[in-house]
Amino acid sequence: MTSLPRGAWQDVARATGLLSPGGEVAATVFAEMSALAARTGAINLGQGFPDVDGPDDVKAAAVAAIQAGVNQYPPGPGIPELRAAVADHQRRRYGLDVDPDTEVLVTTGATEALAASVLALAGPGDEVITLEPFYDAHAAVVALAGATHVPVALAPTPEGFRLDVEALRAAASDRTRIILVNTPHNPTGTVLTRAELEVVAQVARERDAIVVTDEVYEHLTFDGAVHVPVATLPGMAERTLTISSSGKTFSLTGWKIGWVHGPAELVTAARTVKQFLTFVSGAPFQPAIAQALADDETPRALARSLAARRDLLCSGLREAGFDVIVPRGTYFVVADGARLVERLGLTDVEGSPAGGVELCRRLPELAGVVAIPMTAFCRAGSATHERLRTAVRFTFVKQEHVLREAVDRLVALRHP
Ligand SMILES: Cc1ncc(COP(=O)(O)O)c(C=O)c1O
């Protein structure tokens, strides 16, 4: 075929910054940076996946399920044990009352839960508010739904990245169908405060909007930061779809077992779409995750260990000359490279001071480390895009010895 076919993929590519003016589709910056890491032997602190697998007993449970013949289509909404485990988890951890029969849907990771929820509930003429910077799948599913994406800034402040609540109020309109929240937030590591979420709730109630909340990092918070599920705020359970998954909580990102819960009407809407996306998935993984969800200690231990690894990476980045915004959750830290770019005299092709993209392309050769430019999580030309021009995202969900090696290499930037 000589030219690419027209189709909805173009909307997705455009929404995620992957469509060139000539209609070519670019690789994601994640793919570009991972390929760069493989080519140069650099340490890949770009893509956020753990380099140590989750608990042995959970893996053994999946193996046992395969051996026991759990290998055919599971029930459409997910196996009853997993739905019950999700409901029990939400009750135990957050005091939420969830009916496992009508209010929980098991999905192929949080990604499918997001897609099913947004495709089910928003369409042309509707507006979907997200935070900016945003996880790229959020922009992609809004585009697939044919809805209008309205990003609202999480702005860097001395207290970390904070929700611009006035911008949120101003962005909302009677066309706002969904407010898509993500806390703890990828890529900034922000844990939204109760006060910030109360503004989200107030705006949602005023505009009669649905909140879809992506809480995949719910257990990965540090320094006593408390994750507040949107559905726990007064009057919000009835208008909120809560999404999470086992990938981050149990370091099993490849299993893709996720879920969404909320009022039966909203879950029915999401299920109606989900059944034609994948129908079902992960039969032998579902009982294993049902077992894992009863364990509160493994995620706590992971959060403690991640906090220590965050500290290690943050101090190395500071020593290397980055300005770091210390995250209170997730796998990620945002570091501004403006001073480093200036000191090293790095420029882009036009001779202007290099931005994050250029810096990330040069980091493997300069320091043997790979990161992701923050502009990849922004809409081209937005104020947030401009504000984060020189910022890059590093992950610290790697083993301590890997991070130590990365830090040693980064610190060498001090004395090139
Ligand atoms: C904010 C956010 N949501 C969703 C996902 C995807 O989750 P899953 O692998 O369960 O589909 C990720 C993975 O990086 C994420 O960072």
Main traits of this protein?
416 residues, alpha/beta, Aspartate Aminotransferase, domain 1, Aspartate Aminotransferase, domain 2, 2 domains, eight-stranded mixed β-sheet, four-stranded antiparallel β-sheet, globular, binds pyridoxal-5'-phosphate
Written account of the structure:
- 43% of the residues lie in helices and 16% in strands.
- The chain is of the alpha/beta class and 416 residues long.
- The chain folds into two domains: 8-53 and 299-414, Alpha-Beta Complex (Aspartate Aminotransferase, domain 1); 57-295, 3-Layer(aba) Sandwich (Aspartate Aminotransferase, domain 2), CATH 3.40.640.10.
- The relative contact order is 0.16.
- Helix 6 (136-145) links the parallel strand 3 (127-132) and strand 4 (148-157).
- Helix 2 (29-40) runs parallel beside helix 14 (356-367).
- Strands 2-9-8-7-6-3-4-5 form an eight-stranded mixed beta sheet, sandwiched between helices.
- The protein is built from 16 helices and 14 strands.
- Bound molecules: pyridoxal-5'-phosphate.
